[in-house]
């Protein structure tokens, strides 16, 4: 068995940088470090197998036969761990005679969740998709560590459907993982790269199943268990936020949907909030550079909120289009407002920029190396205590703050709700970080009205933008639309007030 430790990058489209230019840049960059006979180029054909019900996929296994230079090898990749774009995944490789089907009995018995199913698995195997690509490989000695750099270009296909393969992988063969990150930084200086968890196999399964990447329903709970330390829970919450962030980055790169960018920011906010939530245990200055770069990233998306609300107003499927459906002048005016914002096409350039990639690399490295432990302010007993000891306290401090800011007996208007949105969201993020330690039914019941209130605030912000645009709108029906908007706001605030006052009567789940 081998355990791969590797970083995976997606390369920007051929229109941004040609495959020839990618190869040229890698040759130049890696030349000083390449080992003797350390370069080769091969054509690889992989066929991936599973049962018709994707049983192997349900185990998070990947099974393939790879053919190159007339030789064949079957590989089983088992469940591993991914942080950012850093992959640690056990794999089993067996040389075989040229064959149309893998022989599962050649893998160790202990890899299978249930050895009694092996015969059924073997008889049910069927090819699902193939990958054909050219692989350039450089074996380099970088600061005493041996690293394999591969650049793949080709396609993954299933029946008559296909997707491009354009990716670079750095695998640590021997040595220190720090050099893996440092070499990755060098690559991002010269090439438009994006750390990616979207494997060739994942893309192949989507082609086979005729499905597309789509937004997750919600950010969900960070998976914790009652035996974790404060430090472990902190690390898990950061990883949860980063995974959500990067998943929706991948969705955006396929769909260019504003809703996916909203989910990217939710993941970013969870990372930022976790750094703040655990500040008593992990000093803020231990992550100073990460804090600064996350602030930079959030500023890069300062245009997004307005763009989302304009789209909500003008979308044919939106709640507001019916009211303004026949008012082409107003629709044109609103759409022109959106065009005046930052071009959405710039988002892809951001995701493939060195600044963005290096931010994620810094965060990944900080997590993997537990960079906060370099600071003398770390209190060992505090960060190694059981997280259950402090979970209720951390949730309660957000709850007390919200109750003090929005007393149940006080009335609030639309602007108040818009102002308090960030504080409500922060309380819910604390719940996402720590809620898995508590009863799921109690937790869901308590969070539900606050999630509804956030949706209501989203509508208030859309109406506020609508009202703002009406100020400069010259149409004859401007006054009628303003009255309609005011009535909608009044009705919505009444609903929010009832929900808030009811929510404050509930007993916290912690």
From TrEMBL:
Source organism, top-level taxon: Bacteria
Organism: Catenovulum adriaticum
Pfam families named in the record: CHAD, CYTH
Domain CHAD: 227-489
SUPFAM superfamilies attached to this UniProt entry: CYTH-like phosphatases
InterPro entries membership: CHAD_dom (IPR007899), CHAD_dom_sf (IPR038186), CYTH-like_dom_sf (IPR033469), CYTH_domain (IPR023577), YgiF (IPR039013)
Name of the protein in question: CYTH domain-containing protein
CYTH domain sequence ranges: 2-211
């Amino acid at each position: 068995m081998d355990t791969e430790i590797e970083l995976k990058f997606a390369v920007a489209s051929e229109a941004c940088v040609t495959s020839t230019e990618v190869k040229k840049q890698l040759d130049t960059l890696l030349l000083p470090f390449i080992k003797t006979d350390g370069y080769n180029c091969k054509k690889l054909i992989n066929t991936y197998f599973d049962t018709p019900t994707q049983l192997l996929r349900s185990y998070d296994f990947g099974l393939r036969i790879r053919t190159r230079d007339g030789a064949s090898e079957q590989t089983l990749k088992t469940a591993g761990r991914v942080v950012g774009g850093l992959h640690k995944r056990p794999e089993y490789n067996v040389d075989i005679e040229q064959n149309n089907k893998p022989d599962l009995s050649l893998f160790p018995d202990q890899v299978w969740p249930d050895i009694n199913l092996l015969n059924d698995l073997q008889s049910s195997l069927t090819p699902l998709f193939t990958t054909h690509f050219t692989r350039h490989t450089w074996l380099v000695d970088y600061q005493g560590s041996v690293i394999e750099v591969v650049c793949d270009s080709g396609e993954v296909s299933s029946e008559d459907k296909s997707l491009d393969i354009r990716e670079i992988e750095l695998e640590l063969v021997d040595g220190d993982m720090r050099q893996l990150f440092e070499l990755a930084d060098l690559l991002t200086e010269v090439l438009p790269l994006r750390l990616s968890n979207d494997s060739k196999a994942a893309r192949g399964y989507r082609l086979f199943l005729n499905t597309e990447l789509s937004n997750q329903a919600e950010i969900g709970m960070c998976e914790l268990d009652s035996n974790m330390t404060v430090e472990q829970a902190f690390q898990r919450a950061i990883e949860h936020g980063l995974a959500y962030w990067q998943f929706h980055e991948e969705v955006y790169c396929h769909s260019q949907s504003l809703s996916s960018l909203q989910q990217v920011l939710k993941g970013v906010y969870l990372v930022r909030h976790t750094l703040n939530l655990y500040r008593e245990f992990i000093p803020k200055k231990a992550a100073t550079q990460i804090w600064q770069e996350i602030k930079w990233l959030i500023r890069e998306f300062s245009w997004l909120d307005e763009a989302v609300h304009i789209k909500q107003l003008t979308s044919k499927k939106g709640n507001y289009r019916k009211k303004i459906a026949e008012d082409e002048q107003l629709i044109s005016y609103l759409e022109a407002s959106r065009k005046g914002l930052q071009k959405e096409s710039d988002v892809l350039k951001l995701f493939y920029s060195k600044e963005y990639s290096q931010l994620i690399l810094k965060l990944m490295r900080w997590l993997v190396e537990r960079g906060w432990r370099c600071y003398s302010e770390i209190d060992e007993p505090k960060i190694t205590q059981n997280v259950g000891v402090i979970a209720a306290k951390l949730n309660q401090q957000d709850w007390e703050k919200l109750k003090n800011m929005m007393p149940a007996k006080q009335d609030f208007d639309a602007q108040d709700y818009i102002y308090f949105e960030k504080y409500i969201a922060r309380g819910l993020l604390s719940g996402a970080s720590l809620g898995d330690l508590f009863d799921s039914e109690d937790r869901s019941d308590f969070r539900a009205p606050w999630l509804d209130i956030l949706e209501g605030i989203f509508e208030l912000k859309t109406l506020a933008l609508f009202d703002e645009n009406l100020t400069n709108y010259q149409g004859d029906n401007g006054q009628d639309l303003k009255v309609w908007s005011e009535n909608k706001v009044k009705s919505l605030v009444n609903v929010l007030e009832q929900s808030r006052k009811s929510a404050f009567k509930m007993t916290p789940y912690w």
